Automatic annotation (TrEMBL):
It comes from Ceratitis capitata (Mediterranean fruit fly). Involved in ribosomal large subunit assembly. GO terms for cellular component: nucleolus; preribosome, large subunit precursor. The keyword Nucleus applies. Belongs to the RRS1 family. This is Ribosome biogenesis regulatory protein.
Length: 263
């Protein structure tokens, strides 16, 4: 059906171009007017004015837009099992303190200190052990465990293959990692590797972050400075444009003497 419509339009265009263009202009104008009347309107000085949509500017991107945030281990498990996060109340009633205390936040810690001003020592525990310090140690251990889990989630999201022991030893290192290690080791001498012997067809490690590992290597200046970026760029342009050529006086004199001798 669509092909038939296109053939019909082509036939009309070939037979009567003026009528075809007139009909096309009329239809497009009607569509434009219909679109304007579909916009919200308001009255200004006894005139009906249409509110045009906000203008948008499409800018090209250097990199592709970021994708969805990868799920953590717990979020993936909860999604598979259909577990939904329950919203906690901001405050709850504490029967010991006989008042409403925050469920989370720094004020909750103050409420816990106020409530637990004394701790019971279990029967099997060491009587000389500080129960308050033990509670602090358990909390710090829990924080460290959460931090380890957070790092594991980052490694899992970046799809980095980490050995079960967590150490990149020589038996699991890639050729690029071994080449970087050799380059850094040879450069870590008093002569910065200038007098180190090289094997035939030996290559040096190249890539992002290799120079930063080599001691004494020249590093690029950081883009972050106290001066704004505009001032830094202007200073660079001025230094290039105002650069004067260097004159070798002795060489110029010798050339002049040679020309005089030839004459």
């Amino acid at each position: 059906m669509q092909e038939y419509s296109l053939l019909l339009l082509l036939f009309i265009y070939r037979n009567n171009k003026e009528q075809y263009l007139l009909n096309l202009t009329r239809d497009n104008t009607q569509l434009l007017i219909n679109g304007i009347w579909a916009l919200p309107t308001e009255r200004v000085d006894e005139c009906i004015v249409a509110k045009l949509p906000e203008p948008t500017t499409v800018l090209p991107r250097l990199r592709k837009p970021p994708g969805p945030k990868p799920l953590t281990k717990w979020e993936k498990f909860a999604k598979e099992k259909g577990i939904k996060k329950k919203k906690r109340d901001k405050k709850k009633y504490d029967e010991v303190l006989d008042k409403w205390v925050p469920t989370y936040g720094f004020k909750r810690a103050d409420a816990e200190k106020e409530k637990e001003w004394v701790l019971e020592v279990p029967k099997n525990a060491d009587p000389n052990e500080d129960m308050f310090q033990k509670k602090i140690d358990l909390r710090n251990e829990k924080v460290a465990k959460n931090e380890i889990q957070r790092m594991k989630n980052i490694v899992r999201a970046k799809k980095v293959e980490v050995p079960r022991g967590g150490y990149f030893g020589p038996e699991v290192a890639s050729s690029g990692q071994l080449l970087t290690a050799v380059t850094v080791a040879k450069s870590s001498t008093a002569s910065v590797g200038k007098f180190q012997s090289k094997l035939p067809k030996e290559k040096e490690a190249r890539g992002i972050g290799v120079k930063e590992l080599i001691p004494g290597a020249k590093r690029k200046a950081s883009h972050i400075s106290e001066q704004p970026e505009k001032e830094v760029n202007l200073d660079l342009i001025k230094s290039v444009l105002n650069k004067k050529p260097k004159y070798d006086i002795e060489k110029a004199i010798s050339l002049q003497k040679n020309e005089n001798k030839l004459e």
